[in-house]
Structure formats: C-alpha cells, structure tokens
Design a protein that fits this description.
By secondary structure, this protein is an alpha+beta fold. It has 4 domains: 69 residues, Alpha-Beta Plaits, CATH 3.30.70; 254 residues, no CATH class; 86 residues, Calcium-transporting ATPase, cytoplasmic transduction domain A, CATH 2.70.150.10; 116 residues, Calcium-transporting ATPase, cytoplasmic domain N (3-Layer(aba) Sandwich), CATH 3.40.1110.10. Helices cover 49% and strands 19% of the residues. The protein contains 26 helices and 26 strands. A 7-stranded mixed β-sheet has the order 14-26-25-24-15-22-23, with helices on both faces. It has a 6-stranded antiparallel β-sheet with strand order 6-5-7-13-8-11, with no helix packed on it. A 6-stranded antiparallel β-sheet has the order 16-21-20-19-18-17. Helix 3 packs antiparallel against helix 4 and helix 13 packs antiparallel against helix 24.
C-alpha cells in the first residue's frame, strides 16, 4: 500500500468533501481516503499494483472536482487587489440594485427614469442588466452547483444555483408578460433576490477564505523556518543555491546569523546554534565537528561547514509538516456525526423545497409565493456551517499543537486526550533528563579507575541507552580514547555484552547476573547505592563481578509542577521503570508520584499498560520512545518525549519535540477546549438549520414572522461566519491557560 496527498480544487462546502470522500472510498484499489475541506486536499492510501496517480486524479475528476497534483505546500488564497476591487464594485452595485428595486417601497426618493410606475420598461431592463452582471460574477457558483448535481454530489452551490436560476427565470417570464400583456406584473419581479443571494455568497466566501488562511498560519510558520537559499562549497569555491538545488552529500556553509538550510552533520568548525523551535531549549547549543544540525536552526556566532544528509521531504521540518497535515486529514470520531448529516442534508433540503413548492400551489398560495418560498428554503439551508464545525476546529488545534512542540499524528487524539484519567511515565529520559553522571564507583579489581571506565565507556559508546552517555561523557572529559570492541550485543532490559582483548565484558543490572548465573556477593553494596538515588551498573569480566557503578540522573526542572497539576485534575500518575525500586521511590517522592512499578522489562511494561486498560482506565503512556515502544503502542495514547531528529517514531501517537512535560498538560487542555468548541459549533449549526428552514417554509407566517431569499442568504452567511469566529477563539487557548 502507498499513501499520497492530492491538492483538490473546486470544494466549497462539506457536501463537496463528503461526496468526494465517499466516491473515492468506493473505488477498487483504494484502501482508505480522507478529504479535508479546510486544507483542500485528499489523503489516499491505495494499492500501487492496481492504481497509479493519474488514475487517482481521474477518479477526482469523475467526482466533479480537479486534482492539482501532489500536495507539496500549504497554499494561501492570495487576495489580489483586483479581487478586492471587484468586491467593492459589486457592493456598490448591490446597494444600487436594492435602491432601484425596493427604494420606492420605503418611500426613498425615486430615480424618475427608473420609476416602476412611470417608466416600467426602464425599470425592468435596469434590473435585468444588473442581474445578468451578478450572474456573470457568480458564474463559478452556478457552474459548480449544476456540475455537482450532474455528478450526483449536490452541495451548497447546488442549492444556490437552483434557487437563483428559479428566481431569475420566473422574473424573466414575468418581465416578458409585463412587456406584452400585463403591466401590473412589473411588481412581480425578483431579479434582486437572485443578485443579492450571489453577492452574499461571494462576500461570505471571501471572509471564509481569509479565516481559513488564519487556521493554517501556525503550520505555515514551520515551513518558513528554513531559509530560501544557502551557500554550498564546490571544489573549494562558495556557490549560492536554492534549497531545491542542494543534494545529499553537498558541503553547506553557515556563517554567523544565518540559518541552517538542511539537516546534516558538521565536518568543520564550531558554533552555538539556536534549536528552540524544535527542542524548546532556549539556550544556544554548542556544536562542533561530528554533531548533527537541524534545518532552521540559527547560527549565532561561528563558521561551520556541514554535510547535507536529510533534504527536501526527508528534513525534520518537512516531516513535522507532513505529520501535521496527515493528522488534520484523519477524522476524529465526533466528525462522523456531522459527516452523516451533511451527506444527506443537501438532497433532503432539495426535497423539502420541492414539497413546499407543491404544497403552496395545492393550498392556492399562487405561483409567486410558491417560487419565492422554494428559493428561500434552498438558500437559507447552510451545510457549510455544519461541515466546517469539526474540520476547522481540528486544523486550528493541530496548528496550535505544532507551534507549541506537540506533534499529533491522528486527529482522534485531540478528541481522546481529554478522556485520559491515568498517565504512566517512564523514568529515565522522561521524568528525568536522561543526562546521567557517574556518582560512585565500587571497584573490586586491581584495574585502576580510568582503565575500568575506559573499558565500560568503549562498550557503552555503541549503546543507545541514556546510561551510556554518562560513560562516553567521562571519556571525552578525560580525553580517553575508545577501545576496539567485538561481538557487541544488546540484551533488552538487562544490559549489554561485548569483548575487549578476548575478555568477555557484561554491563547491566542484577537481572543480567541471574540470566548468566553469576553469583552476586555485593547485594548490600547495590542497596546502599540505590538508597542514595543511583541507577546500578554491574561490571562483569569473564563471569566475575569486578565493579559496581552508581549513576545519577537529573530530574526534569518542571516535572514536580506537572505531576502536581495532573494530580489536582484527578489524573492518576504512575512511574513505570526498569530501574530498581529504591531509586524509583526516591525520584517518585521528590516529584509527587505515589504509585511505582519498578524492575520491569520492556515487554512487562506493555503488559502493565494492558492490565491498567482492563480496569477501564483511559491510559496515556509517556516514554522516551526506545525501550518504551511496546508500551507506547498498546496504550490509548502513546506520548514520546524526544528531540526533533527522531520525530518519525512509529510507536507513539504524540511526539513532544520540545522535550517539555508541560506539553502534556497543554495537549489535554487543547483537547478539552477543542471538543467543547466542536460541540458548540455543531449545536449552533444544527440549531440554525432547525430554526431557519421552518421559518423559510412559512410555518411562522401566521404570527407575522417570515423571510425572503435576500434575508435567507444573509442569514446563511452569518451562520458560517459565526462558526468560523467561534473556532478561531481556539488560537488563544494556551494564552488563557
């Protein structure tokens, strides 16, 4: 299976996106398709043995829309001066049209040559000409409406197109009759209804497009982090190129004040880089030869040359944008409510309008009232507000999360995070920084300390466990070279094994000793070190314990405050660690966690999560994404505390790129406010249609409440704007929190 995101043109409301989504999901070879109205794209997972991209684009065309090719960047609808001028001109024309057609009804000074009582022909021709101008202005709406009706995917444009043309044709007929037979019919023209409906729809679309662009701003900021150009070194000569011209292996230069263009590795020079947009670390990081650099980082003070490693779509920033866009394309469970309703809404409104039209004729209300009511029902219905309620909120929240270092892979997480009642934390690298230091060494051999730590550090240099960094840091600080090792083997949850100069060395915990049946005479020493808050590393040479080393970790600066906040919100916190119980208890006591599960292997962590879920708990697992992968996968929500260079981890559903536990609280707050906002949007969308359609039908006419097509179109636009403005409030969630 292969996945692609296509940019789609021609979608104007939720009926469009739902219709296209249903059509795509019916096609053979497509496993799953999600269409995003706000981002104007379609995420399609398909069998490449059956389908290819041109075939997918043909499916889009058959559904009545147009594919603009593979989604590459977030596009903003450019509001050109011409477009603004057009809107201003048609605003003036709309006012003129209303004045000419209705001014005499409210005793406004009449334009004598356009007076319907004295110059009926002039009056009718003026209205006709102005209406034709408006029909040309709204031709895209009319064309799209009838096109989608033909493709059996009727949408809001379909409702407007049918209503507008019915009003126009009826008025054209009455105009003909007024000119040839009955002059009294001059007062039965509804040209202005057709024109003003188009004007309000255009005005609403203009405001809507501006609002949608605002929802994409946070994601767009990520894209703009990288520079437009860079300087590469070719045969010793500096050459300025665009980002697209940089290839893997190119030597790129970054001078003080410049941004890193692509992900890579420093091969010469040193500098301090600001990586706060990814790691959340405000202090510039010292970088030198051999260190990795991330695209978008700012070089503060040095000259460096680095080899390009991850370019284009492979870069950290591109990966972040891809994850955010894919997440916004997935559907939250709550969205299914709106989808089901929107899917049948437009056909249902058309049926209601037709029934109303026939009923008015049967009841003897006259063709004029029947057509006016028919048009009003079609125009007042607002599938847009219903369709925007969920996807708009999801996109705003996804952008908010991304700009605050929270990468959510599926939008359902935004719905489910507010359900969390239990959070399980890994210790090393999660509640602590994982920046370990050697605190105490108990040496039982004749080997001197430097030689002992050189042996241990050389083996740990090949390990990915945070404990290994304490030893490699020691080697660097004391300028001790790494020894050659062979037969390296990682023993999950226990330790590591390797050979140096034909000596077999084991490094690990007490469980490793049991596995290799090594007698442990130093249990009391281990206990003493553990009580002092150390993680324990046994050093075994040729099946004999030669040392015990105590490693201390540093608790995250804000861990205590985060745990306190979670506890105050009645969310249970649990520490789950492979470390010994004594060390875990000391750290748990310091930060306020009451429940500890220690001495567990990676697979046992997963079993622990499963058992908690069996107790009907909604469990979030927060780990470093390495040994915690099984537990992250089986939890309801897996959160990986990691740096930007490892963002594409499959095991977790949420990645905290800023390495800050406060992001967990932010995620839960965003989730709560997002769901509340969606429910508000859905309520007002349902309430609007529930209220306005009966009024449009004329049920409240006996008590003097009725509307015409112009008021209906204005109400419909205001309904969509209400949903948009309510959704945009989400951008201030974290400011108020």
């Amino acid at each position: 299976m292969k996945k692609i995101i296509l940019s789609i043109d021609g979608m104007t409301c939720s009926a469009c996106s739902n219709g296209l989504e249903k059509y795509l999901n019916k096609q053979k070879g497509i496993k799953e398709a999600h269409v995003n109205l706000v981002m104007a794209n379609a995420s399609i997972e398909y069998d490449e043995q059956i389908l290819n991209i041109p075939m997918l684009e043909e499916f889009v065309k058959q559904a009545g829309f147009k594919s603009l090719g593979e989604f590459k960047e977030i596009k903003f609808e450019k509001k050109s001066k011409l477009e603004k001028i057009k809107l201003i001109i048609f605003t003036i024309l709309a006012i003129l049209l209303m004045y000419v057609s209705m001014g005499h009804m409210i005793n406004l000074p009449a334009i004598e040559i356009l007076n319907p009582h004295t110059h009926a022909t002039n009056y009718m021709v003026c209205l006709l000409v102005l209406t034709i101008v408006f029909l040309i202005y709204g031709f895209d709406i009319l064309k799209n409406g009838y096109k989608n009706l033909i493709h059996k995917t009727p949408n809001m444009d379909t409702l407007v197109a049918i209503g507008v043309m019915a009003s126009f044709i009826y008025s054209l007929y009455n105009m003909y009759m007024a000119l040839t037979a009955n002059k009294h019919l001059v007062m039965n023209l509804y040209f202005e209804s057709a024109s003003i409906v188009i004007y309000f729809i255009k005005l609403g679309r203009y405001i809507d497009s501006i609002s949608k662009d605002k929802t994409k701003e946070a994601i767009q900021k990520l894209v703009k982090i990288t520079p437009n150009s860079a300087v590469i070194k070719v045969d010793g000569i500096e050459k300025q190129v665009t980002l697209d011209e940089i290839n893997k292996g190119d030597i790129v230069i970054a001078k003080p004040g410049e941004k890193i263009a692509v992900d890579g590795e420093i091969i010469d020079g040193k500098a301090h880089l600001d990586e706060s947009f990814i790691t959340g670390e405000s202090k510039p990081q010292a970088k030198e030869k051999g260190d990795k650099v991330i695209a978008g980082s700012i070089n503060y003070d040095g000259y460096i040359e680095y080899k390009a490693e991850r370019i284009g779509k492979e870069s950290t920033i591109s990966e972040i944008v891809r994850l955010v866009v894919e997440a916004s394309n997935t559907k939250a469970p709550i969205a299914k409510i709106a989808d089901k309703v929107s899917g049948i809404f437009v056909p249902l409104v058309i049926i209601i309008a037709i029934i109303t039209f026939i009923a008015y004729l049967i009841l003897g209300q006259g063709i004029e009232n029947a057509i006016t009511t028919f048009v009003t029902v079609l125009v007042v219905a607002c599938p847009c507000s219903l369709g925007l309620a969920t996807p708009l909120a999801i996109v705003v929240s996804e952008g908010l999360c991304a700009s605050n270092g929270i990468l959510v892979k599926k939008s359902e997480i935004l719905e489910n995070a507010q359900k969390v009642n239990t959070i399980v934390f890994d210790k090393t690298g999660t509640l602590t920084y994982g920046k370990l230091k050697i605190s105490k060494i108990i040496n039982y051999s004749n080997t001197n300390q430097d030689k002992l730590l050189q042996t241990v550090g050389s083996i740990e240099a090949k390990s990915t466990h945070p404990i290994g960094k304490a030893f490699t840091d020691y080697l660097e600080e004391n300028k001790l070279p790494i020894l050659e090792i062979t037969d390296f083997e990682n023993i999950a949850g226990l330790g590591i094994k390797a050979k140096i100069e034909n000596d077999e060395i084991l490094l690990g915990n007490s469980k490793m000793l049991a596995k290799y049946e090594i007698q442990n005479k130093y249990v009391d020493d281990e206990k003493t070190l553990a009580e002092e808050g150390n993680s324990i590393v046994y050093v075994v040479k040729n099946k004999e314990i030669i040392a015990i080393i105590g490693i201390n970790d540093v608790i995250r600066e804000n861990a205590k405050e985060v745990i306190a906040t979670l506890n105050n919100n009645k969310i249970q916190t649990i520490m789950l660690t492979g470390d010994n119980k004594e060390t875990a208890q000391r750290i748990a006591k310091d930060i306020g966690i009451s429940q500890i599960i220690a001495n567990v292997l990676p697979n046992q962590k997963a079993e622990t999560i499963k058992n908690l879920k069996k107790e009907n708990r909604f469990v979030m697992m927060c780990g470093d994404g390495i040994n915690d992968s099984p537990a992250l996968t089986v939890s309801d929500i897996g959160v990986s505390v990691n740096t930007g260079t490892d963002i594409a981890m499959d095991s977790s559903s949420v990645i905290l790129t800023k390495n800050d536990l406060t992001s967990i609280i932010n995620l839960i707050n965003i989730s709560k406010k997002t769901i509340r906002n969606i429910k508000q949007n859905l309520f007002w969308a349902f309430f609007y249609n529930f209220l306005m359609i009966p009024i449009a039908i004329g049920i409240l006419k006996p008590i003097g409440i009725s509307i015409n097509p112009m008021i209906a179109s204005l109400a419909m636009v205001l309904s969509s704007i209400t949903v948009i403005l309510n959704t945009l409030r989400l951008r201030n969630i974290l400011k108020k929190a």
